[in-house]
Design goal:
Bound molecules: pyridoxal-5'-phosphate
CATH class of the largest domain: Alpha Beta
CATH superfamily of the largest domain: Type I PLP-dependent aspartate aminotransferase-like (Major domain)
CATH architecture of the largest domain: 3-Layer(aba) Sandwich
CATH topology of the largest domain: Aspartate Aminotransferase, domain 2
Helix content: 40-55%
Strand order of the largest sheet: 2-8-7-6-5-3-4
Structural class: alpha/beta
Strand content: 15-25%
Number of strands: 12
Distance between the termini: 27 Å
Number of domains: 2
């Protein structure tokens, strides 16, 4: 029986075609800037998002941290959503390693951070306060595409307030496919963007940070300091190029699969399902059933992090048939419980 892993879109494994380009990749020492495949990936990604320069990093966490540290100095502050990955899921790196104070703000239900709350959080020029330098947004966030009109308003405010604007675009291409806008359009209001290649795009590792030449120059030094300077990294960069060439348009399949999964689960009376915009399905499971459900799924080789709010993520390695099997397992489980 096939194992179906719905914990995250990070679990995707490289396809044979991806492994083939990795095996053939031309490489050099990227710390010296000599790796032609890394350079090609950086140029390609920068062009896709309409920015001057880019730098390849081992992870999205390090990419965001490099961006924050390139924008902010010690004792500076960045404004960020309470649910944002950079704030909540990166071990507090901005504070620990960057000496940057986060100013978290409660996200609205659509994933945005309301502009009036951002405005109220910017500190006046006064010795009591940290210096506010940056606003960081995330798209998609919790699988939701944030409205571009909102992004434009925040960008206008940032510019008027002399603040930089960073996008954690780990799943930028899910937003691209869902919105029908280009990556360049979605990124135009930002000073920097971090894109993950190892989520739904299916590369084994790697993220790319894009911005101005000056910002990326600073990020280069910071990457070295954080231990992210890799040598013959072209082998993984080749996977990233392959992912950008072949795995972007197909994200639409993941979105359609998530919708089909949500529709199926929605017929189970005990569950409350939030209809997905992209590849993340949120399901409210009665607390008393959480452990038994996890065991029931695991016995049928379905791996999911089951909780009162269960997040199921579709990706390259799960098919429509797999998901129909998952729906059937949920149905069986709750039928028995009556
Ligand atoms: C996964 C993710 C990251 C971090 O990527 P890693 O490669 O796991 O470090 C950053 N931001 C968001 C929104 C993510 O989903």
């Amino acid at each position: 029986m096939k194992t179906i892993d719905l914990r995250s879109d990070t679990v995707t494994r490289p396809t044979q075609a991806m492994r083939d380009v990795m095996a053939r990749a031309e490489v050099g020492d990227d710390v010296f800037g000599d790796d032609p495949t890394v350079n090609a990936l950086q140029e390609k990604t920068a062009a896709l998002v309409g920015m001057e320069a880019a730098i390849f990093l081992p992870s999205g966490t390090q990419s965001n941290l490099c961006a924050l540290m390139a924008h902010c100095g010690r004792g500076d502050e960045y404004i960020v959503g309470q649910n944002a990955h950079t704030y909540k899921y990166e071990g507090g790196g901005a504070a620990v390693l960057g000496s940057i104070q986060p100013q978290p703000i409660e996200n609205a239900s659509d994933g945005t951070i309301p502009l009036e709350k951002i405005r109220a959080a910017v500190k006046p020029d006064d010795a009591h306060f940290a210096v506010t330098r940056l606003i960081a947004l995330e798209n998609t966030i919790g699988g939701m595409v944030i409205p571009q009109a909102y992004v434009a308003e925040v960008a206008q405010f940032a510019r008027a307030s002399n603040l930089a604007l960073h996008l954690d675009g780990a799943r930028l291409f899910n937003a691209v496919v869902k919105s029908g806008k280009t990556a360049e359009e979605l990124c135009a209001p930002f000073d920097s963007v971090s894109v993950c290649l190892s989520k739904g795009l299916g590369a084994p590792a790697g993220s790319v940070l894009c911005g101005t030449k000056v910002l990326i120059g600073r990020a280069h030094r910071i990457r070295k300091m954080l231990g992210g300077g890799m040598r013959q990294a072209g082998i993984i960069a080749a996977a990233g190029i392959h992912a950008l060439d072949h795995h972007v348009a197909r994200l639409a399949e993941d979105h359609a699969n998530a919708k089909a999964l949500a529709d199926g689960l929605n017929e189970v009376a005990s569950l409350k399902v939030t209809m997905p915009q992209t590849n993340i399905v949120l399901v409210d499971v009665p607390s008393a059933e959480v452990r038994a459900l996890q065991t029931h799924l695991a016995a049928a080789r379905v791996i999911a992090i089951v909780g009162p709010r269960t997040r199921l993520v579709t990706h390259l390695d799960v098919t429509r048939e797999d998901l129909m099997r998952v729906v059937e397992l949920f149905r069986q489980f709750f039928a028995k419980r009556g």
